[in-house]
């Protein structure tokens, strides 16, 4: 896992624990009671963090691995979102690549300000336990090249962006 803070701007580690516990259907209280311990082992990886999560979830210890994976993927997506927000004046177009079960788009390119980025179809809000989607930021030049090469199938929005 990249070296990044456990608490992210606007997304404390405790709020992330609550979010993933609710998603997994487990009580967040035991996780919050050991938040500092979980935060300390979180970045050490799956094999170190999962046993602690299992102890916090006696009603569903088999969910510990899934909870860790989702917490990790959401944490990384939120970190990436923060990075992209800092440079969206230089790279105003965001491109979603990948597909989670239940999501329709394989690839979609929209302005960073588009309401789509607040939906459940993006990695930082995805409610799927296994999310392999990624979001990349593009400059105007990169968008132009992408459209000139023909865009990806189903990414008609990119051509409309270039025209505007």
Which secondary structure elements does this structure contain, and how are they paired or packed?
Elements lengths: L12 H12 L3 H6 L1 H8 L3 H11 L7 H23 L6 E5 L9 E5 L22 E5 L1 H9 L7 H8 L1
Antiparallel strand pairs: 1-2, 1-3
Helix pairs in contact: 1-5, 3-4, 4-5, 6-7
Give the tally of β-strands.
Answer: 3
Percent strand equals: 5-15%
Shape, per Cα inertia axes: elongated
Identify low-pLDDT runs. Answer: none
Q: Helix/strand-derived class?
A: mainly alpha
Average per-residue pLDDT, rounded, comes to 87
Number of helices: 7
Radius of gyration: 18 Å
What is the rounded distance between the termini? Answer: 39 Å
Overall tally of domains: 2
- Give the assembly state of these chains: single chain
Task: Spell out the helices and strands N to C.
Answer: HHHHHEEEHH
- Widest sheet: strand order? 2-1-3
Major beta sheet summary: 3 strands, antiparallel
Brief rundown of the structure:
By secondary structure, the chain is mainly α. The protein is built from seven helices and three strands, in the order H-H-H-H-H-E-E-E-H-H.
Description of the molecule:
The chain has 164 residues and is mostly helical. It folds into 2 domains: 13-77; 89-163, no CATH class. It has 7 helices and 3 strands; from the N terminus they run H-H-H-H-H-E-E-E-H-H. A 3-stranded antiparallel beta sheet has the order 2-1-3. Helix 1 crosses helix 5, helix 3 (35-42) packs antiparallel against helix 4 (46-56) and helix 4 packs across helix 5.
